[in-house]
From TrEMBL:
Catalyzes the addition of meso-diaminopimelic acid to the nucleotide precursor UDP-N-acetylmuramoyl-L-alanyl-D-glutamate (UMAG) in the biosynthesis of bacterial cell-wall peptidoglycan. This is UDP-N-acetylmuramoyl-L-alanyl-D-glutamate--2,6-diaminopimelate ligase. ATP binds at G112, T113, N114, G115, K116, T117, T118. Residues 24-98 form the Mur ligase N-terminal catalytic domain.
């Protein structure tokens, strides 16, 4: 419970009508969650305008309305606050309501197209191993030390975010590592947070359905760095063309990591096998359990972050070398069939190319590489043909299938993908809409020593069709089908 005026601290107000001393018992941006004593924030969304729900919020007991446009009807006893940007106001209000928890621990945000979950998961495990109470906010799961809280988004909404951070603080967490998605940055889910540092992994084609142009997507990521306070750190991948852009207008201390460019944190890949990566990192030779060149970047980002947070280099490397990858990232499904079965969350062109190039490096030449891949419905359509082309160019056989069609017709998504198949690639491609059948077909094609990659869903345990999340786990289906078809003796 807090007074409205205190919750509105740092929010720039345009006009006020009503009592600023009103006691507020909860915050909501969804009218369906309003109760007696709630302050309702009306946000204009992609589907509807939250301003439409002001009167129903008041009926449900809202005592304050924060909005961009004042309603005609302003019942007595309810405070009305006009702001320029409701979503930004919501960020600051949520931070104030929960006692500004981000100021009470070291919060590090990781952004970039790929590698966010991998980096924050490693950082969480690392800081646990170093003995700290640590929080995690990620696509896969949110954690307070080892306690798991379900994650619905890569970056939660401002209220959930600050509430969870406050729980972390109350449980003694000194650090929190969080993914900061471009949607969250643009939608101000992170407004009002105090970051100790931010990390940029890379930028490639993704989410153009939402950001419309690549420039807008770059700008969204850059905002995280533009808003960092003086005294915090910005750590960017300097091998990525957009690394320097992220640093252009930041007040934070600037740091770089790279394999190729001049940088503060450098590594050299000594060996890269299906067992892991051997790196020369800061003059030390260290083995890591993560697979693939691209993970050298993630490991460097994690190493740099830990050192910037004041940890000792050798201790960081010692602990980091013991850590496992995030679930569903280059995860091997172990069977006795002699077939190498891999599940990976590659759902962008760049990720798919990286994973298949990594597989290419391991193969000795005779194996058949079979890729099963789909593209999400109601998401970026432009990436569909590109991903199909990459799958074909870098595999021997490809099965196009469904990956969370959501409210689109699976056949339409598959047609978009097929547009990327060149005539010469056509004969190596099959289209099987049902993902289980597609995985089954891949298993039936595979012979011992062959490699199957099932890409796009990684850790996900569902297939989302028309708003319903049906149980589906690539790892389980792959294991079940391999054992069924290639009955081990
Ligand atoms: C496109 C997008 O990002 N949408 C997010 C956005 O919803 P929206 O703008 O569409 O909201 P809306 O449905 O138009 O409603 C507008 C407002 O009216 C309110 N409302 C609505 C109905 C009602 O009866 N009463 C009411 O008050 C809503 O609560 C909302 O405040 O704000 C919501 C609240 O924070 C999010 O849950 C929602 O995420 C949707 C479900 C989603 O799928 N988002 C994905 C694309 C996403 O955010 N992904 C990123 C990145 C993924 C990654 O690369 O890892 C993530 O961080 O997860
Ligand atoms: N540094 C990297 N560069 C390029 N590709 C990567 C990198 N790290 C991971 N990948 C690929 O991207 C996939 C997703 O990785 P991860 O989940 O860590 O990314 P993310 O940024 O959290 O994704 P999301 O936007 O969905 O949250 C991995 O399964 C792998 O194929
Ligand atoms: N965080 C990403 C995940 C995509 C994963 C893929 N399986 C899909 O559903 O498109 C998104 O929401 O766009
Ligand atoms: Mg993620």
């Amino acid at each position: 419970m807090a007074a409205l005026k205190d919750i509105l601290y740092k929010v720039s107000l345009q006009s006020v009508s009503g009592n600023m001393e009103t006691e507020v018992t909860s915050l909501a941006f969804d009218s369906r969650k309003v109760q007696d004593g709630t302050a309702f924030v009306a946000v204009k969304g992609t589907q509807v305008d939250g301003h439409e729900f002001i009167s129903s919020s008041i009926e449900s007991g809202a005592v304050a309305i924060i909005c961009e446009e004042m309603p005609q009807d302003q019942p007595e006893g309810v405070a009305f606050i006009q702001v320029q940007d409701s979503s930004k106001a919501l960020g600051f209000m949520a931070a104030n309501f929960y006692g500004n928890p981000s100021e009470k621990l070291k919060l590090v945000g990781v952004t970039g197209t790929n590698g966010k979950t991998t980096c924050v998961t490693l950082l969480h495990q690392l800081f646990r191993a170093l003995g700290y109470n640590t929080g995690l906010l990620s696509t896969v799961v949110n954690k307070i030390n080892e306690e798991e809280l379900p994650a619905t988004h890569t970056t939660p909404d401002a209220i959930t975010l600050n509430e969870t951070l406050a729980q972390m603080v109350s449980k003694g967490c000194t650090h929190c590592f969080m993914e900061s998605s471009s949607h969250a940055i643009v939608q101000n889910r992170i407004a009002g947070l105090k970051y100790q540092g931010a990390v940029f992994t890379n930028l490639s084609h993704e989410h153009l359905d939402y950001h419309k142009t690549f420039d807008e997507y770059i700008k969204a990521k850059k905002l995280l760095f533009d808003n960092l306070p003086a005294g915090s750190f910005a750590l960017v991948n300097y091998d990525d063309k957009r690394g320097p852009i992220m640093l252009q207008n930041t007040k934070a201390w600037k740091h770089k990591f790279a394999l190729k460019s001049f940088a503060d944190y450098k590594a050299k890949i000594l060996s890269n096998t299906l067992q892991g990566l051997e790196l020369d990192i800061s003059g030390y030779t260290v083995w890591f359990k993560l697979i693939g060149d691209f993970n050298a970047y993630n490991l460097l980002a994690v190493f740099g972050t830990a050192v910037l947070l004041g940890e000792e280099e050798t201790e960081v490397l010692e602990q980091l070398s013991n850590l496992d990858p995030a679930p569903g990232r280059f995860e091997q499904v172990i069977t006795n069939t002699g077939i190498t079965a891999l599940v990976d969350y590659a759902h962008t062109p760049d990720a798919l190319e990286n994973v298949l190039s990594t597989i290419k490096e391991f193969r000795t030449g005779n194996e058949t590489v079979i890729t099963v891949v789909g593209c999400g419905g109601n998401r970026d359509k432009d990436k569909r043909p590109i991903m199909a082309k990459i799958a074909c160019d870098l595999s021997d056989k490809v099965i196009l299938t469904s990956d969370n069609p959501r409210f689109e017709e699976p056949g339409d998504i598959l047609k978009d993908m097929q547009a990327g198949i060149t005539p010469s690639n056509f004969r190596k491609t099959l289209t099987i809409e049902d993902r289980r059948e597609a995985i089954k077909a891949a298993c039936a094609m595979a012979q011992p020593n062959d490699i199957i990659l099932v890409a796009g869903k990684g850790h996900e345990t569902y297939q989302e069709i028309k708003g319903v999340r049906n149980d589906f786990d690539d790892r389980k289906v792959l294991s079940e089908m391999l054992n069924l078809i290639h009955k081990p003796n």
